[in-house]
Amino acid sequence: MNEPLDGSALSQYFLLPTDASEAPVTGIWAERRRLASIMRTVIEHLTVADTPESELREAADTLQHLAAQLGAHPRRRKRDDIADTATPMDKHALIDFSPLIGLSNPISPPLELTLDGNTLRGRLRFGTAYEGPPGCAHGGCIAAVFDELLGYAQSLTSLPGMTGTLTIRYRVPTPLHTELHCEARVQRISGRKIFCVGRLYAGETLCAEADGVFLASR
Ligand SMILES: CCCCCCCCCCCCCCCC(=O)SCCNC(=O)CCNC(=O)[C@H](O)C(C)(C)COP(=O)(O)OP(=O)(O)OC[C@H]1O[C@@H](n2cnc3c(N)ncnc32)[C@H](O)[C@@H]1OP(=O)(O)O
Ranges for the Thioesterase domain (predicted)? Predict the structure, then answer.
């Protein structure tokens, strides 16, 4: 884990670009993302604001009504997400509901990813809903970020797989409400095993690092 995350010898494994399409998202997907973004704000206010009981009751009543309204519609089929969103190369069309990077999923921080050579880079900010120790991110949420980050990096190889083992070393507490950046890359591939490494920083401070072994499907 001490070598730089450049991975230049591994370019052969990367088949697809990962950067999200810059094409503007419109229509139903734009509204899904907007709704998710507002829900994130509601979650943040719920966890930090000293809201009077009457307003909490009113908000809950409003959301109960909204939940019933949204729940009245039939469930979508997965293929519709892909067909409805953008081109097949727009990978965000496939991952808009991811719990970590999905812009249409309010539980995602969201983690923003870009591919820089063979290094996958991410940016995120943990709100209060992700608190573990006071003022710091929950370790399980950090692990989830690494699972997504390393998992996405290995998904860019010719043989993507599922997480087999994910090992996290928490070096210092990770602050909330702070711009964090992270990076990951495929370190090596051995048979069906894809070994990945990653790091998470707050500024120059290394907060946590991860090793992951992913198993390509048979
Ligand atoms: C245009 C389209 C683009 C699409 C682009 C989409 C991008 C979107 C990116 C999203 C990124 C999300 C990333 C989230 C990723 C998850 O969260 S996946 C969910 C969490 N993981 C799981 O649920 C996995 C559950 N476990 C399993 O299914 C199975 O145990 C596994 C991991 C598949 C392995 O089972 P298996 O294939 O039967 O393994 P087996 O044949 O026994 O062993 C094979 C080898 O692997 C080793 N091994 C087995 N298990 C493990 C293990 N757990 N750890 C380490 N080594 C192991 C064995 O020792 C053996 O080694 P050798 O003897 O060959 O040296």
Answer: 135-205
CB 138 within 8 A of CB 26: no
Do the strands 193-202 and 205-216 form a parallel or antiparallel pair, or are they unpaired?
antiparallel
Ligand 1 contacts CB of residue 215 (under 6 A): yes
Residues 168 and 209: beta-carbon distance below 8 Å:
yes
Render 58-73 in DSSP notation, one character per residue.
HHHHHHHHHHHHHHTS
Residue 147 CB less than 6 A away from ligand 1: yes
d(CA 163, ligand 1 centre) in Å: 5
Instruction: Please tell me if the CB atom of residue 18 comes closer than 6 angstroms to any atom of ligand 1.
Output: no
Convert the pLDDT of each residue in 147-192 to its tens digit: 999 999 999 888 889 999 999 999 999 999 999 999 999 999 999 9
Q: Which two structure tokens, joined as six digits, stand for 184?
A: 């990951």
Q: Report the nearest-CA residue for atom 27 of ligand 1.
A: 164
Name which residue sits closest to atom 51 of ligand 1, judged by CA.
Answer: 164
Domains by residue range for the chain, with CATH: 10-24+77-216 (3.10.129.10)
pTM equals: 0.88
